Amino acid sequence: MNSLNHIRNFCIIAHIDHGKSTLADRLLEITNTVDKRHMKAQLLDQMDLEREKGITIKLAPVRMQYNDYEFNLIDTPGHVDFSYEVSRSLAACEGVLLVIDATQGIQAQTLTNVYLALAADLAIIPIINKIDLPAADVEIVSKEIISLLGCKQEDILLISAKTGKGVDAVPKRIISDIPSPYSDVHGATRALVFDSRYDDYRGVIVYVRIVDGQINKNSQISFMATKVHAQALELGSLSPDMVPTESLTSGEIGYIVTNLKTTREAKVGDTITLTNTPSSQALPGYKDVKPFVYAGFFPESNEHYQELKDAVEKLSLSDSALQYDSENSPVLGFGMRIGFLGLLHMDIVRERLEREYGLKLIVTNPSTDYRVELASGQEVDIKNATNLPDPSLIKAIREPWIKGEIIVPRDYVGSVIQLIIGRRGLQTNLSYVEDRAIISFNAPLANLLTDFYDQLKSITSGYGSFNYELDEYRVENLVRLDFYVAGERVDALSVIVHTREADNLGRTTLKHLKAVIPRQNFQVSLQAAIGGHIIAREDISAYRKDVTTGLYGGDVTRKKKVLAKQKKGKARMKRFGKVDIPTEAFAVMLKRH
């Protein structure tokens, strides 16, 4: 083990696709942690999904040796949905490498993570990556960094992680700029859990930073927030494969294999202490992460419901943020209502269920949770519009609002503010860093869940970046909007919406439904309603067979008789006919504009 003076713990923070994982690859090569022949791109991204999307989903720690120094690197996720994981990773470090793309400059997620790093009082080493690209504008991006951090031009490292140019200077700066960890070696043992994962064969494995004291193999350990006791069956470092050791001491980062059966018992941000000599004070910053985006997941055929249930249960063992419940819909049958940290998190879970478990899924429109105050004074949490109580019993409905930040080039400020206002948002601040504008705003989360990000990218020619955090629940004038197909209410399409937006959303949704529901032999009515009040209607016209083609000559009454008979048949069909709703109809809310 290295002495504390020779340990450097650091993170790499950056926006999606700014070269974080590629820089990690180069550092692994420079320190000879991974043999050249075993090297592959994005080595720390273990999932196929991470490689395909080019993003980091699960963070991964790795230990490297450079001269006499021990480097502990945590490769963090860059997406807004996983910002709590990033904050816990930062808490496990003394410094960060801030990587910024020379072609794109500072983005919203970068800014958020920089604020987190500054709040944690970490040493920041600014790095401009991708300087080899023709579109690179080092001068402008350097000015942005100097304006943001107040550093000097010579403090900024210029590299190309892909070609390896300039990367040699990074380890030297890590040694000189990032302080060694401070620790109370003789104090009661405390370790910060900054990630946990579930292994099918070994149970829960936690990634920890030992803050004080030490943990030995087979020690009895306790998790202070969840009050769970476990045994450290094995511990060691990752380089990047598991290397078992007899103990982990203060200042070190490593893994502990426990005898726990689910990550819900080993939550990110928790403090581990020894059961026999426990610490009286947990490490600060623990938060119980709660999902705030909910969607219904249904199998295409009801016979696969049990497979879906088993798959979600298995997935939740390794993803403690996932919350789920059974759901029943008259149209879609049995399914699961699943809670997520955000839309990317939902997308990843859906893809994993389809790939790893071979399921074909119907996913209903994502919604958020609402806090409903009843006239009796009781408060209930509503995750599904169909569970909203009768309006006569409701005193107030609170919906979640977010604090958002959008970074765009100056030219797009007007159209972005229009977009925010169109979503019932309120602009709170506007500031400039060089030629970029930072727009701060508040908005209802429900209005940003659908196609807000797509619209932002569209109106800013792809330059806009967006970041948000949950702010508070506000009382708003909200109602439940129901949709009827051929007189039958389709629960899976019901939404909670502001009264001001109900009319427009009802009409738009019906137009989308009309385009995806196939024509029948009878007329099909599509209706949007609030309570018993119909606010919009569209009709899908019937297929009409010309029953008079075989009639030649004779009295006109012959024709009328045949048409009257057809009309009777159509009316009977309309009474008893069933409309088969295609799966695309359940995603119509995703495109509200």
Note the total helix count: 12
Coarse structural class: alpha+beta
> What is the fourth-level CATH superfamily of the largest domain?
P-loop containing nucleotide triphosphate hydrolases
Q: Which value, in Å, is the CA radius of gyration?
A: 29 Å
CATH architecture title of the largest domain: 3-Layer(aba) Sandwich
Q: Can you count the beta strands?
A: 31
Percent helix among the residues?
10-25%
Into how many domains do the coordinates divide? 5
Question: What spatial form do the alpha-carbon principal axes imply?
Answer: elongated
- How far from one another are the termini? 59 Å
**Main beta sheet, described?**
8 strands, antiparallel
Name of the CATH class of the largest domain: Alpha Beta
Strand content: 25-35%
The name of the CATH topology of the largest domain is Rossmann fold
**What's the pLDDT, averaged over the residues?**
82
Uncertain regions: pLDDT < 50 for 5+ in a row?
41-47
Main-sheet strand order equals 11-10-16-7-8-15-12-13
